[in-house]
Each structure stands twice: as structure tokens, then as C-alpha cells.
Amino acid sequence: METRRENKMGTMPVPKLLITMSLPIMISMLVQALYNIVDSIFVAQYSDLALTAVSLAFPIQMLMISVAVGTGVGINSLLSRRLGERNYEDANHVATNGLFLMVMSTAAFALLGGFFSRAFFEMFSDNPQIVAYGTQYLFICSVFSFGIFLQVAFERLMQATGVTIYNLVMQGSGAVINIILDPILIFGWGFIPSLGVAGAAIATVVGQIAGAVIGLFVNLKKNREVSLSFKGFRPYGRIIKEIYRVGVPSIIMQSIGSVMTVGLNKILIMFSEVAVSVLGVYFKLQSFVFMPVLGMSNALIPIVGFNYGAKRKERINVAIRWGCILAVSIMLLGMAVFQLFAKELLMMFNADANMLAIGVPALRIISLSFTFAGVCITFSSVFQAVGNGLYSMIVSVVRQLVFILPAAYILAELFGLSAVWYAFPMAECVSLLLSVLFFRRVYRKRVRDLELTDEEDLPVAEGV
Fold first, then answer.
1. Which DSSP letter does residue 12 get?
2. What's the CA gap between 247 and 158, in Å, rounded?
3. Which of 70, 221, 293, 389 could share a disulfide with 249, CB 3.0–4.6 Å?
4. In this structure, are residues 57 and 319 in contact, taking their beta carbons and an 8 Å threshold?
């Protein structure tokens, strides 16, 4: 089995490898995006105030996902490099220590959500109904967050070994369960009472827990590269440090999105609660565009990481080139949909005339940034794969904190609500320039001069 894995990661033609590894992740992430949207569609039918509350809760959900995914990126990057080096004992330690870190993260969010959910919503609204809805939703999602953390961990363990088809099973199963439970728990059915926003939260965490359980089973039964044995387990500081060397910049990079969204909500709520709902709806909709690109980038990380560990420069070059091609193509398609069907997209959320007036130009303006973002995401994955996640973090900080928030505030003060949305494409142009600069530096220092030192011990490449 190990030989087949090495032949696939080290010798399968890279375009085919990237596509075959990406497709299951893309589909699973599209399913994930679907159930996020369905969640909001049902909540919008329940109450306009409920939609506003869920939109305000979204940054904290993003924060939880950011910590889970960021830690997962660190696990993925280090594990794929150890497998490329054929250091299987260390690879097992990476897997078990990664799961340990996920459990610790769950405990932290359970405590924060349990004690501070109401205080968070009282920062944004004095409407008691919004505060009540939001507190219910966030309390449940954070206290029972172990499902999302463990599911992400198990997904990354499979990705690092080059097997991604099971991610579709994990995420798909959780998404289907969530979609089925949403209307039942939100509106009630038979002997099940209407639980409203709390029902939406319960459906979400049940789906996540189901995905985690399936992920555990898949890794125990199907993962032949990594052994999940906790007998005699102890945390390894060396490995935890290495995971977080890539993981922490990724966590910060993605968590900044939560900070940005909180800041934008503070700016938008000066105009109306509807503007906050529009931003929340946008983030749900754009996940349909960004999730496939992120799926591709998740496949790109172990491919680049493995071949970086195996010192195969040409395969790294081809992987990066095809990553950019796929990312830009997806983003162009997404931009076209937002430009042509903005009204129809908003109508899925029971948009009234006021929401359409704000939301249609917002979607069209923000989507102008999509193509630039595709290149930035690809380069960010390369930085993480070769162990330099700091550059990804810097680009994200500049884009979302240094540029978007100040620009949005200035545009709001000078030109009103309609100008706020231009902060997105402006910031993406800046991040593209910075990403290109960092990529040239990383390539020159880490990739350009790679040479095989033990070529006779490595599988013969069948093509790139």
C-alpha cells in the first residue's frame, strides 16, 4: 500500500493527480456550502430578525472553523512532508498530536460560547429578540463544536495521504443530515415542536458530529499510511510546534475574516439591519464560489508538500501552474453568476425591495474581486505546503484589516452605504501584488534549487 501511495503522489501526472484529489474535496465543500445556504434560507422564512441574528453569529462560527481548518492545514502540511520523506513513525505522532490539539480547541470554544454568547450579541443590538435568537444559536454551536473540529482533523489526515474521496462521504453525510433536520427542527413536524433558531443550531451540530463519527471510522479502517493509536500517548512539543508553525499563521489568516466581518457589521449596522443581513447572505452565497477553490487548494497542499519533501521541483512547478488555472477558471464562472443573477440569488432568502436595493449592487461590486482572489488562494497554499505560512498570514492581515476595514469606513463616511462594497475589490488588488512578491521570494529560496539527493531510492516519475 505504501508503494502505491508514493507512486500516486510522486509519479502520477500532476494535472490528473490534482484534479482527482480536488474533485471529491470540491464536491464535499459544495455540499457544505449548500447546507449553510439552506440553513439561512429556512431561518429567513422563520423570521427576518432570526436571519439578522444568524448573520451576526456568523463571524464566531467562522472563528471556530478558522481554528479547526488552520490547525488542519498545519497537520496536513507536516504530515504530507513526513510521508514524502518516508518518516512514518513521525507521521503517526503528527496525526495523534493533531487530534489532541483539536480536542483542546473544542474545550476552549465550549467555555467561551457557554459564558459569553449573550454578551457578544449585546455588543451589536439592543433588540431583545435578536439577542435572544443569537444567544440560542451561538450557545449550541459553540458548546457542541467538537463535531466540526474532529471532522476537519479526520479530513486532513486522509488528504495528506492523497486519499480525498472519503471527504465527500464525511461532509456529504453531515450535510444531508443537516438539510433534513433543518425544516423539521425549525418549524416542527408531528410530535416534534417548533424550535426556531435553536432548531437550526441543533441540526448543524448533529450533522457535524455525524461527519466526525464517519471520519473516525474511515481513518481507522481505510487509512493505511497513518496509525491512530493513543496507547501511551503524550504530547510532543517538537511536533506541536511544527504543526503550529504553519497552523498558527493559517489560523490567524482565517480568523482575521471573523474580525473583518465583525468590523463590517459595526459599519453596516449604522445604516440598517438589512445591510447586515445582506453581508451575511453574501458570505453564504460566495461560499459556493470559494469552496471549490479552497477544495483545490486543500489538494494542492499535500501534493506540493509531498514533492517538496521528495525534492521534485518540476512536479511542484506543474502543480502550482495548474492550481492557478483551475482557481481562476472557477472564480471567473462565479463572478459571471453574481453579475448576471444577483437578484435571483437574493430572492432565495425572501428578499424584499429594500434588501434587493442594497444587495444587488453589493453582490455585483464584491464579485469583481473573485479572479484576483483565486490566484492569492493558490499562492497561499504553496506558502503553507513548504512550511512558510507566515506569508499567507501577512497577506491576509493586509487585505482584511489593514485595507478593507479602514477603506470601508472611509467610503461609508464619504459616500454612503453603496460605496462600502468597493473596499473588497480594492483590497484584493493589493493582496494580489503582495502575494506575487512573496511567491517570487519563496520560490527563489525554497523551490528553485531543489535537487534529488537519493534519486535511486525514489520511485521513477511516470510524468508530470
1. S
2. 17
3. 389
4. no
